[in-house]
Write a structure and sequence with these properties.
The protein is an alpha/beta fold. It has 7 helices and 7 strands, in the order βαβαβαβαβαβααβ. Helices cover 36% and strands 12% of the residues.
Length: 288
Amino acid sequence: MLDGRRILITGVLDRHSIAFATAARAQELGAQVLLTGFGRTRRMTERAAGQLPERVDVLELDVNSVANIEQVRVELQGRWGALDGLLHAVAYAPADALGGGFLDTPVESAVTAYQTSAFSLKALVAGLLPLLEAAPGAGVVGLDFDARMAWPSYDWMGVAKAALEAVSRYLARELGPRAVRVNLVSAGPLATLAAGGIPGFSQLAEVWSQTAPLAWDVEDPGPVADAACFLLSPLARAITGEIVHVDGGYHAMGCPSPSGNGAPAAIGAAPAEAPSPKGPPAAIGVRR
């Protein structure tokens, strides 16, 4: 399905992340893969890279640096000359933008969450666009958490994810004529490294299992990785501007089934994505 396709994957922290599962699955499907890391988390990414089916290189990437994105473009131009796929799996929010203090969050923290978690998709795609255009049918996939509703404690990361969804639609509009597709995968809660630092994760997982009509395993990022690989593949050649929910069907339900174990408890936030270089995992807001 991905035989010979060249894919850049951001956001790998360890082998439990969605980005890692996507990289591993992409390799199994025949893709060539490169990872990115930055700052103090890059060493973690390099360790994870050694656990993939085929070891890969890790490029330095700060998604908030235009100059650094250009360096990555030059590196990829020399290695591959074109880019068939890109996984955007980076998000960050300062601690004061999460955890229930929505009304007290300073504008600087809200802007940081937006820039790293949403605008960075545009910045990265725009910076790598010559390589994506050189591979007709190229696909961009971002990792999302359903932004149609407000989540307890999710606060400005939820706002940033709503922005990410809008950014992806506008990118799809702009890049469709250039034969580049842009889609998101909205996943259910998964037990990533950063999820351990988010209040209420265990309650969220419990409510999810009560409500989702399909079984949902918080320890298994495989279904999300499979969906991402599909969207990166030629099989999704006519799909763009889409948000694919891989959450056991939770997004389509109104409340837990009467057969569940009880009413939803107060929940915290969604599991976390790979942090930007600006903060440790405990301070981040969304996935993977």
